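Notebook B, p. 112. Complex prediction, attempt 2.
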Amino acid sequence: MAAATTIDVSQLSKAFGPVQAVSDLTFTVEPGQVTGFLGPNGAGKTTTLRMLLGLVRPSSGSATFGGVGYHDLEQPLAMVGTALEASSFHPGRTARAHLRIYATAAAIDAGRVDRVLTQVGLAEHADRRVGGYSLGMRQRLGLAFALLGDPRVLVLDEPINGLDPEGIRWIRGFLRELAAEGRTVLVSSHLLSEVQQSVDRAVIISRGRLVYDGTLAGLEMSAKVAVDAPDRAALLSALLAAGARVDPTDAGLIVKDIPAAEIGAIAQRAGVPLSLLAAQQAGLEAAFLELTSDEPPPRVGAHAAPPVEGAQS
Amino acid sequence: MNLVRATRAELDKIFSTRLWWILALVMFVYVGSVAGILAGVFGSLDTSADPTAPVLDMSEIHLIIYSSASAIGYVFPVLLGALSATSEFRHQTLTPTFLANPRRGQVLGAKLIAMALVGALYGVIALISSIGPGALILSLVGQDARLDDGNTWILVVRVILAMALWAAIGVALGTLVPNQVAVLVIVLAFTQFLEPILRSVSFIWEWTAQVGQFLPGSASDALVGWSVFTSLGMMTSETVALEWWQGGLVLAAIAAVAAILGYVTTWRKDVT
């Protein structure tokens, strides 16, 4: 593995006929951390990744690896490892043959095939036909394909879909490890909760447009915090004086756009003892839903319905 | 060198699933049966006993029987080529294929070369199954199997060439019609039904015969030099046939045109 590389997406757009799948998307993915690429199904995540990988031609704009397009990479699999959907296998072929074919095509040492099969825990199933694999095993094989060239950049589309809880724990640790080795890791998901424990940064798109690019902590800032005090009126005026947007409810005050720690500090400066200070349980998820949906945001305290699982974007 | 690598990967694709040997086995049994039956029927024809019997040039009967390797067997390399190309679309394996090698034209070229090599292998298998039973039964009915005839070995080489070209045509068709069921129906309907009819009808007039010689099956038979179809045609009317090398060029041109059209219409499109 050589020097680190960024992923640079610049003013990227794609129209399929009259459907604008991706519009003027610009973001950068840095090495050494895990970046989540989030958005509901149909937001344009997979189309964006496929443009990055040279599988789909952009209508305009560019997507490169440190300035080099996928087509122009010297050794594409050694630079970029990719796991797209979990179904790109011939069901009649064994996992070993599947990997060997692409290792041959990409001039990767045949010894890597056994290494990556072991790495993803498929070594003992390597000579079974892929048609008999479970979804979780296919995900692992997809990941083995991504790791084949020991790449500097990993692009994984919904890698957690279909994994059992043990597999999810495994992949979270695995992604952290890959990033810690200095690789650039981009992981897409339609569920924030699926990746929030493993990503450092989030790029969120909705309807093909960028709606958020930053840290998860920053995303949480746009979430809500419930706060209350025996002297609720004093707390309210202190918060309003600090410029907070406050929603008084029966259960306390709901504060938007200010993290809990800062609310505590405001209360302390105002000399108001608190009886409650809690980030809303669904804070991140609610912020995510608010960003990505055109529907009115869910009421505070209401249980946010999870996005429908299944079909991918 | 990249093309060599790409071709090796494509060969590995073909040999790592079961389709190639299943089709080869069916071809072996089918060609062997037809060659055996032809040898039995034509070898025991006694043209002197029955004056109404069709006049056959018995000096070439062995060549006609051995040519069933391609005259009957050519559909199998076409099917293998077409199914291997369409399976890339059906199983979405174009995605890892183009990730490993983003030069799509090179991938298609490698596929055509790899499949032509396997088509040549099919030619060898089909020849074993046409010459084996054919020569055996000819000997049994008292005819000479003529394995020492130079023409027999010219035929062997040309059958291998024809089968290689047919396999490439199959790949090209598969890229042009990426739907597996559709390409299967088209190949079977054309080779087993439409083309035999067209070839028979084309003998009626001079000008249709001129056009008919460019039908792929006719061109293939011209390339090989002998065929049960053209030899039967010879008895009923004047035949028009291309030179052997012209037949080969017609097959190669069909493969090239179909591959270019397939490249433009499907191969270079977005892979979603």
